Amino acid sequence: MTSPPQSTPRDDLTTVELTWIEKRIEHRIRFGHPVHETIIDKRRRVVGFAPGSIFAFVRWAANDFGTVVSRIDIVRAVLAAEPYQTLPYIRPGGEILLKIAGWDKVERVLQLIDAIEAIGLDPAEAAPDYWRQTHNRLVAGGTPRIYSVEQHRAFLLRKRGTP
Q: What is the largest CA-CA distance in the chain?
């Protein structure tokens, strides 16, 4: 069981600014376990993730003519001394495992996340290499593999054997 998010941020957290304006902007976390949350107002809040944790950040925006932005980023929060890539709304940044734009591809990633949850696994605990492979296949126009319980077991065994 995870503890509820705290209201006092720590310096080592990766923070994500979330916004929701009906029919205009939706910046949300699809999966991940924030350890900090600050509510700014009814439309905005900031969540923080501990180093090493993985989360999915979905950004969608529309104007009077339809959708103008549809993207998903799966990111690993980093330690202060680690190198990182910068991303909008994420401070200071993180290790980008997957970065996809365009509704068709974003929808495919969301379906893959749903499939992981359907087999009883937490997508935040899935192998980082799975998200990299998914990114590469989608960018190349290929079909990503479905994450399996066997693949997850192998990842956990590798992780346990790594110092």
A: 53
Distance, in Å, from the CA atom of 127 to the CA atom of 103, rounded to the nearest integer, reads 24
- Asked if residue 130 lies in contact with residue 147, where contact means CB atoms within 8 angstroms, the answer is yes
Mean pLDDT over 21-44 rounds to 96
- Sign, CA dihedral 74-91-36-20, equals negative
Going from the C-alpha of 79 to that of each of 70, 75, 76, the distances in angstroms are: 28, 13, 10
CA geometry: angle at 58 spanning 113 and 119, to 5°? Answer: 10
What pTM was estimated for this model as a whole?
Answer: 0.90
At which residue do the structure tokens 């290929």 appear? 142
What are the helix (H) ranges across the chain?
A: 103-118, 128-139, 149-161
How far apart are the C-alpha atoms of 131 and 157, rounded to whole Å? Answer: 18
Res. 50: pLDDT tops 50? yes
